[in-house]
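Ticket #4471: structure output looks truncated?

Reporter: J.K.
Steps to reproduce: submitted the chain below (111 residues) through the standard prediction queue, then opened the result file.
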Amino acid sequence: MDKLEHYRQVIKQILTEHAEISLSRGTVKSQLIFDNEKDHYQLNYVGWQGDKRVFGPVMHFDIENEKIWIQYNGTEELVPQRLVELGVPPSDIVIGFYSPFKRQFTPYAVE
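Returned output as attached by the reporter:
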């Protein structure tokens, strides 16, 4: 399996696992969005809790320049560590929700 296909598979695995363990309350559902052409991947919550609209991202990944960009992580999971456990080298992981200045102090890629 080539590198990009492996990265796509790992991202989908993480998102799918979170979608499956997410608690459904009322009509709030987990929604997986996989764009294999442009390499954008998300898990969202969509629905209603009583009269309150629930809509928002839980996790968002992109693949850019053969690196996994973690654009958002609204979970307690340490996603960069999980990616490493699944075979992604730290040099191919960018914590996109950190500023470029802050990224230099992590063990992961700056960009």
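Triage note (M.O.): checked the attachment and the full token line is present. The chain has a mean pLDDT of 93.
Status: closed, working as intended.
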